[in-house]
Amino acid sequence: MSDKWIVRGGKFVVPGDDKPAVIGGDMIVENGVITYIGEALNAVPEGVETFDGSRLLFMPGLVNTHGHAAMSLLRGYGDDLALQIWLQEKMWPMEAKFTGDDVYWGSALSVLEMLKGGTTTFLDMYDHMDRVAEVAEKSGIRAVLMRGVIGLCPEEVQRQKLAEAVAFAKDYHGSAGGRITAMISPHSPYTCPPDFFEKFVQAAHDLDLPLHTHMSETRREVEQNEADFGLRPVAHLEKLGMFTRPSLVAHGVHLNDEEIEILARYQVGVSHNPGSNLKLASGVARVPELLKAGVTVSLGTDGPASNNNLDMFEEMRLAALIHKGVSGDPTAVPASEALRMATEYGAKSIFLDQIGKLAPGMKADFIALDIDQPHLLPHTDLVSHAVYSASAKDVEHVWVDGKQVVKHGLCLTLDEEEVRRKAQEAFEGLLKR
Ligand SMILES: CSC[C@H]1O[C@@H](n2cnc3c(O)ncnc32)[C@H](O)[C@@H]1O
Ligand SMILES: [Zn+2]
């Protein structure tokens, strides 16, 4: 049976010739796919359900390309610290106590926040990933999931963790009706020794899946990599064969010109996480140079404990603003480019070619903003408003695969009250253990 419906009289962010444009009109969704978007139709075929799009801006759902959802349980636990101290003294000791249920409720809290804030796809690197997949399945969100592996442990434990990462990818890639895909994820070059890292590259080859890792996040990491392996992280990972696979690296803050050229040559995507990089004082990535070199730069929040929210509108705004401030060039990252980083480039960087744009043939993952509010008026340039003026709070409706998951700001798929209560209880349980 065909499931066909139409948005009438909305404003839509669509791909333009060289940047997104806004058009008024109608959009038809059929079996979870956009089949028409354009001028208002004269008449609606009988029996087709209509959705009134007036006073709403429809745009592609936001794509969060790097994070650790369950870390919402550690939001506010260990602020104002540099990365290594934050990880070693605060995050890792607490994460060692996480149970599968903690990961479930922490991830549910994050997915609730992301869906209500207009994120329709998220990438997640963590442990207990079967429980994250459970949340993705139930909530209706699209997810790219991977068992992140820290290899600072005996060989036997390394073997077990690698096996878990492979088993998870095999079991879950393509699950939830195709909404869940998998990647292979050694945590970083500084937590996975070279021979161990190479095993992930081999696993990615065997499974024909892309790789994801943290890379060049802090100056200290780069210096330590040079001291330990005689190479900066990009050359080190190139040597380990990572870039022979489709790859996405998180952060890429400390890159020289030669490294940018290498990433461009291998078509390695960079997930830019401006909020987290600022909070951990890691630095500011060279985004204008990366974009100019042809690198696909997308946006991520990183975990909620280093951000400290999952508002992708905030990341867009930060991406558009900080590079102007740092370079002294107001055109460094225009609003239209920041929007593409959060949508189209996000989709490309996680290897999903059917999301990130509102166009016929694309999956119906989209959001509607209430643009009738003081801070979004007058309607001069709605792409500008989406980046410079809007926030997660402006998201009124959300659809994934054509199914509505947020209606008038309320999540339809998760029990909001239960998620809030269980997440709070999970955090209190962690403190007692
Ligand atoms: C092995 S699961 C993921 C692992 O990553 C840690 N993490 C969270 N944020 C960051 C970051 O910015 N850089 C490096 N590692 C990070 C998290 O605490 C988990 O242990
Ligand atoms: Zn991270």
Could you say what the CATH topology of the largest domain is called?
TIM Barrel
State the end-to-end CA separation: 52 Å
Largest sheet, strands/sense/barrel? 9 strands, mixed
Radius of gyration: 21 Å
Number of strands: 18
Binding site for Zn(2+): 66, 68, 214, 302
Keywords: Hydrolase, Metal-binding, Zinc
Domain Amidohydrolase-related: 59-405
Cofactor: Zn(2+)
Break the fold down into its secondary structure elements and pairings.
Blueprint: E1 4-14, E2 21-30, E3 33-38, E4 49-52, E5 56-60, E6 62-64, H1 83-95, H2 100-116, E7 119-126, H3 129-139, E8 142-149, H4 155-172, E9 180-182, E10 185-186, H5 194-207, E11 211-215, H6 219-229, H7 233-239, E12 247-251, H8 257-265, E13 269-272, H9 274-279, H10 287-292, E14 297-299, H11 312-327, H12 335-342, H13 344-349, E15 366-370, H14 382-389, E16 395-400, E17 403-407, E18 410-411, H15 416-432
The structure holds ligand LTUXU72L and zinc ion.
Structure description:
GO terms for molecular function: 5'-methylthioadenosine deaminase activity; metal ion binding; S-adenosylhomocysteine deaminase activity. Catalyzes the deamination of 5-methylthioadenosine and S-adenosyl-L-homocysteine into 5-methylthioinosine and S-inosyl-L-homocysteine, respectively. Is also able to deaminate adenosine. Its cofactor is Zn(2+). This protein has helices at 83-95, 100-116, 129-139, 155-172, 194-207, 219-229, 233-239, 257-265, 274-279, 287-292, 312-327, 335-342, 344-349, 382-389, 416-432; strands at 4-14, 21-30, 33-38, 49-52, 56-60, 62-64, 119-126, 142-149, 180-182, 185-186, 211-215, 247-251, 269-272, 297-299, 366-370, 395-400, 403-407, 410-411. The protein is α/β, with parallel strands linked by helices. The protein starts with a strand and ends with a helix. The protein has 2 domains: 4-60 and 356-411, Roll (Urease, subunit C, domain 1), CATH 2.30.40.10; 62-349, TIM Barrel, CATH 3.20.20. It contains 15 helices and 18 strands. A hairpin with a 2-residue loop joins strand 17 and strand 18 (410-411). Strands 1, 2, 3, 4, 5, 15, 16, 17 and 18 form a 9-stranded mixed sheet that branches. The model has no long low-confidence stretch (mean pLDDT 98). The longest helix has 18 residues, at 155-172. Helix 2 (100-116) crosses helix 15. Zinc ion is lined by residues 66, 68, 214, 250, 302-303.
